[in-house]
């Protein structure tokens, strides 16, 4: 699921863009959702500091002391990977907007056709970009941000993708997905693949991994050595102080 946040000082335009997006998601069977809208920059910043946003659509001229460009700069301070799309009636801003790693620029008034073109291209970019963190769930159009994923569990013929918000199930196998996962996902058990960036503690005595949302998974003897080598030598956000070294 891609989470979209919108900011425009004109409430009518804000509602119009939101409705167009929802229509585009439904008509094209895209796994996207408008999770937050605001007419002021402060509200967007407050929300985005607490919740994960994948795509921002920002009006440049917000009729306040904080412009859409200022807002983009603040967003980039804590989210380097989010997609930024700017909207404005002032075409002279276009070059200034691209310094924030802008995905696209929409001139007002925004049409359904132009917005749909951008959104379809954005979803295609995510699918084709090997460096992104988005993970496709099975053969469906569903995608989740790998940064939200704690582990993947094998249960019979199903794989269960566990995030803080919910779990996603699909019929598949580890052999079909392992080569498509980001490098921070490591097999730790015959039934688990762990996101090592989400590990808060490892108990070597009981062979249990604890994630930062208190979810746990097991470490299998066959996979323990490789897991520990990755944790010791891999480029991950955690450090070894989080590991319980009891024998």
Q: Strand order, main sheet: write it out.
A: 2-1-3-4-5
CATH architecture of the largest domain: 3-Layer(aba) Sandwich
Q: Per the principal axes of the C-alpha atoms, what is the gross shape? A: elongated
**Percent range of helical residues:** 25-40%
- Say what the CATH topology of the largest domain is: Rossmann fold
Number of structural units classed as domains = 2
Task: Give structural notes.
- This protein has a 5-stranded parallel sheet with strand order 2-1-3-4-5, with helices on both faces.
- The chain contains 7 helices and 16 strands.
- It is elongated and about 60 Å long.
- The longest helix has 17 residues, at 11-27.
- The protein has 2 domains: 2-132, Rossmann fold; 140-244, LytTr DNA-binding domain (OB fold (Dihydrolipoamide Acetyltransferase, E2P), Beta Barrel).
- The two termini are 41 Å apart.
- The model is unreliable at 235-247 (pLDDT under 50).
- The chain has helices at residues 11-27, 41-48, 68-78, 94-97, 112-128, 174-177, 221-233, and strands spanning 2-7, 32-38, 55-59, 83-88, 102-107, 134-136, 143-145, 149-155, 158-163, 167-171, 185-189, 192-195, 199-203, 208-211, 216-218, 243-244.
């Amino acid at each position: 699921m891609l989470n979209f946040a919108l900011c425009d000082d004109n409430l009518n335009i804000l509602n119009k863009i939101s409705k167009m997006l929802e229509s585009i998601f439904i008509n094209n069977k895209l796994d996207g959702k408008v999770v937050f809208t605001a007419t002021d920059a402060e509200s967007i910043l407050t929300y985005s500091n607490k919740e994960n946003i994948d795509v921002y659509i920002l009006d440049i001229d917000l009729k306040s002391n904080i412009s859409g460009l200022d807002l983009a700069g603040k967003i980039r301070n804590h989210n380097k990977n989010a997609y930024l799309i700017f909207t404005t009636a002032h075409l002279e801003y276009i070059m200034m907007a691209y310094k924030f790693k802008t995905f696209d620029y929409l001139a007002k008034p925004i049409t359904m056709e132009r917005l749909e073109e951008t959104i379809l291209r954005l979803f295609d970019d995510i699918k084709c970009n090997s460096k992104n963190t988005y993970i496709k769930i099975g053969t469906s159009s569903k995608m989740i941000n790998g940064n939200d994923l704690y582990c993947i569990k094998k249960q019979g013929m199903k794989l269960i993708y566990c995030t803080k918000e919910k779990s996603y199930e699909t019929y598949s196998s580890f052999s079909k997905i392992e080569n498509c996962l980001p490098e921070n996902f490591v097999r730790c058990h015959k039934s688990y693949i762990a996101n090592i960036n989400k590990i808060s503690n490892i108990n070597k005595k009981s062979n249990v991994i604890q994630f930062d949302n208190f979810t746990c998974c097991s470490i299998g003897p066959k996979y323990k050595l490789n897991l520990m080598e990755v944790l010791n030598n891999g480029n991950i956000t955690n450090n070894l102080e989080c590991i319980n070294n009891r024998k």
